[in-house]
Amino acid sequence: MSLNNIDVVVIGGGVAGLSAAISFKRRGLSVLLLEQDNEFGKRIKGEVIDNAAKIFEKVFNQKGLPESVSRIVYKSAKYYTPSTKKFAHRLLPSGDKIGIEYRELIDELLSIAIKEGVQIKLKAEVMELIERDDKIIGLKYQELSEKSEIFPKLIISAIGLHTKLNVPADLKNPKNICPAIKIVAENLNIPDPHELEFFLLDIPAVIWIFPKLHNRAELGATVWLDSDQYNLKSILDNAAKTHPILRKRLDRGQYIYYADEILAFGGPVKKTYKPNLFVIGDAMGHVGAVGGSGIVSSMTIGYDLGELLGKILQDEGKLQPADFEEAQKLVNNSPIGKWLKKEQSSAKAMREILYKPPKSPQEIDVMWDKFKGFIEGR
């Protein structure tokens, strides 16, 4: 495939980028995917997946995820107050809420993209977007030591928050971008491998444990503040020594993977395009603002954009500004878009009730019985 005849360039090889690339290719367009890393699926991604999500049927042509993607069924989630004297216990829909191995999901998407004919370049970092007459007309990227320019009809940026690439100044970043750490650990003392655990702290922060297969779990922590005034590793280390429950959970644990992360908890950005560029995924807040879940939402938005804009490109040969406006309405008013807005409202209410103004663990316990219904009813 000549790079002079590319219809769509997708930046980023996560679930959003791969889903978009597959969708555009299925519309009969030429698609190039640029991934800046030397391999796909390096991130630690533990979250609750709805195995009944409609996007899986669109992408995989079957209900639910392929059997090759390992999974564990989650039946409940427990949320502890900072004192651990009280908790909320949320029952999850039977059989539908699962945890997966993220790398295996990426491998499945990558296999489909290759079979569909998506052209892929690894170690290809986009350095700059080329703008002219208030439009994004191309990009500059570096593959190993070679620098190139390309001028496609459409650019889909799904590169996430871990990037040096600047989006156009008139596109806003999502609010409440928070630091986090994610760890894959073995030999944690987990009493129920089908139950998620969340431990609220006496600062606006949470530690979580997501059980995984093979005696592993994802251990993570985040502070709901877009600042670096707290050392998350120190918070986690201290909890392992002093927290009434976590010190038991982590007593024999061994950490085997560790990653510093950035999570967007502020909800979706209203406008995520500038002709001929559409930005999707974490960089535009396409993740649930309560728990940071973004696999299903990002896959859905990426694939749906491919269906709409891909058809227009196939029929008309180019996109007009009105096409981008229509696509933005599709994203914002879709079931996923409405869910993201609902999550945004819920997250803001929950954190303000618990932490604004700052409250002692005892004060949170006093109000907990009224508040826990909010969590258990989600």
Can you give a write-up of this model?
The longest helix is centred in the C-terminal third of the chain and has 22 residues, at 295-316. Helix 2 (54-60) crosses helix 6, helix 6 runs antiparallel to helix 7 (321-333) and helix 7 (321-333) packs across helix 8 (335-355). The chain has 378 residues and is of the alpha/beta class. A hairpin with a 4-residue loop joins strand 14 (195-200) and strand 15. The model has no long low-confidence stretch (mean pLDDT 93). The strands form four sheets. Strands 6-5-14-15-16-13-17 form a seven-stranded mixed β-sheet. Strands 8-2-1-12-19-18 form a six-stranded mixed β-sheet, with helices on one face. It has two domains: 3-56 and 102-174 and 268-342, FAD/NAD(P)-binding domain (3-Layer(bba) Sandwich), CATH 3.50.50.60; 71-99 and 175-265 and 349-376, D-Amino Acid Oxidase, subunit A, domain 2 (D-Amino Acid Oxidase, Chain A, domain 2, 2-Layer Sandwich), CATH 3.30.9. The radius of gyration is 21 Å and the shape is globular. The N and C termini lie far apart (48 Å). It has nine helices and 19 strands.
